[in-house]
Write a structure and sequence with these properties.
Radius of gyration: 36 Å
Oligomer: single chain
Largest sheet: 5 strands, mixed
Distance between the termini: 75 Å
Strand content: 15-25%
Number of strands: 5
Helix content: 10-25%
Order of helices and strands: EHHEEHEE
Shape: elongated
Length: 178
């Protein structure tokens, strides 16, 4: 038969003594305190609604932005004035600009950063680039894409119904280390 190991029982320390709380003395008020009621700013069924006549709306018209593929007269990149297909020439010249201006950021190479930065910008009524939006995997790549787009030349603006209009253009820029 097997011998069972001896069992040791540890004695628990006694519970700590409970002390009575200190005696609290109530001091008399020297000054009268004016209580401020803080009311809720939440609305409920009793909240009075301001009549529409009392509300003024600023007269600021949001100018429509037209996608380059849907415009009557596409913006014209410098050098595309006499091209048969001005849209295709525009896209070709923008891509050529990207290739010519592109510099892979050294920090991105060191960090092995790669990916696609989608740029979206508006060609304003004056032909200048505005409203640049960037979506991409890293700020270093987005900064380079912004630099490239900022170097685009002024173009002849797009037209709709004979008037200069703002035109949105989307351009993905791929960053790949080779």
């Amino acid at each position: 038969f097997e011998e069972t190991p001896p069992i040791t029982i540890q004695k628990l320390p006694p519970p700590p003594k409970i002390q009575a709380p200190p005696v609290i003395e109530i001091a008399e008020d020297d000054e009268d305190i004016i209580e401020t009621i803080i009311e809720s700013s939440e609305t409920n069924e009793n909240t009075e609604i301001t009549p529409l006549e009392g509300i003024e709306v600023a007269e600021e018209e949001e100018e429509p932005v037209i996608i380059i593929d849907l415009i009557e007269e596409a913006p014209v990149f410098p050098g595309c004035e006499n091209a048969e297909d001005k849209r295709a020439c525009f896209q070709e010249k923008v891509l050529r600009h990207v290739k010519k201006t592109f510099r892979y950021p050294e920090m991105a190479i060191e960090m092995n950063l790669q990916g696609r930065v989608t740029t979206q910008f508006i060609i304003g009524k004056d032909g200048n680039i505005e409203g640049l939006k960037l979506h991409g995997p890293d700020q270093i790549l987005k900064d380079e894409a912004a630099r490239i787009i900022s170097k685009l030349p002024r173009v002849r603006p797009g037209k709709q119904n004979g008037k200069n209009v703002r035109v949105v253009f989307t351009l993905p820029i791929n960053f790949k280390i080779q």
